[in-house]
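Appendix B. Raw example, untouched.
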Amino acid sequence: MDLSTYFEPVSLDDLGLAHDDFFPHISDRIVTYTVENGFPETKKQHLALLGVCDDRVAVNNAGCSNAPDEIRKKFYNLSLPSYDIKMVDLGNMPAGSTVEDTYFALTEVVATLIHQNVVPIILGGGQDLSYAVYKAYERLGQIINICTIDPRFDLGPETDDLNSNTYLSKIIMSQPNFLFNFTNIGYQSYLVDKQYIRLMDDLHFDTFRLGMVQSDLNETEPLIRNADFLSVDIGAVRQSDAPANGNPTPHGFYGEQLCTMTRFAGISDKLSSVGFFELNPKYDINGQTAHLVSHAIWYFIEGFYCRKSDFPYKDKHNYRRYIVPMVGDDSLEIVFYKSKKSDRWWMEIPCPEEQQNKYARHLLLPCSIRDYQQALNNEIPERWWTFYNRIIG
């Protein structure tokens, strides 16, 4: 497939590249689609940056389609996160004749990159573009876990059109459905209707309030490690740190917390795509939010080049295995794995034999030592119970 048909080239002259520093910049290593150099080859690359300039259904946030180049202005001038970086910039995908045309193009591009084992880093645009990313996994026939960093759930009535506030409903209602798990990190209770919190519980999805995860940000690592796709709504960051959003809130994550979580995403062997959405340059102050997102991308890339290749689905021999029987229930034991490479933990979810092929990538659930300690106290970890109910339900 000729991906170049979906993109317009980047003008490096418009990015204000730095040339007076005494260290190599990302711009020195990234291969960018320009008029002069042509469209880059994506095969054998590790990462691909791409902008999507469509904000037609970004609710109350018209103007976020201009975000990609504003982020590039900051990102290209950062130092190299790794000297082994193999990364291309595919340029900007202009809005199609209809929003559906944009979705189709993004789906084709993301599916192609993932098939080539290239991780797309998507700069939006509205968060409704997450729907197109989901469709890419559907195109590949791959069951997907989605994780969002978002102050809301982006659910809405089934009758509402697809937009940045309803895209998740459309994913959930898709048939056949390829969504195995959805995780929200950082929702704010006063922005979420109680009926949607109950719906998430009924669907056995994972939702975590802002205050809960801020009390121990390290507990977000296994949540993110379980995802195939991480979707970041910049509105999840407090307005003082990220003013460039049409739906700001004074509460949210600090900028450094966002960078910590995107680094968690980078080091996850399972995660194969990430998107940054809803950044609106017309509300930015001295490029502050664009700078923050460029840092978040930098940390994602640094994490990517620190991957340990210790996703247990690949090889269980590099792990210590712990079996914890539940006292009082002779039929139940929980099996844990601890990586010898990274000291990270997983727990095994039992599954009927006829479903094992379908859910194989999701039967070893990332967890923390806290879950293991809970099991030692004869308490079933809530995370284990939630996933078990989803499988047998």
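End of appendix B.
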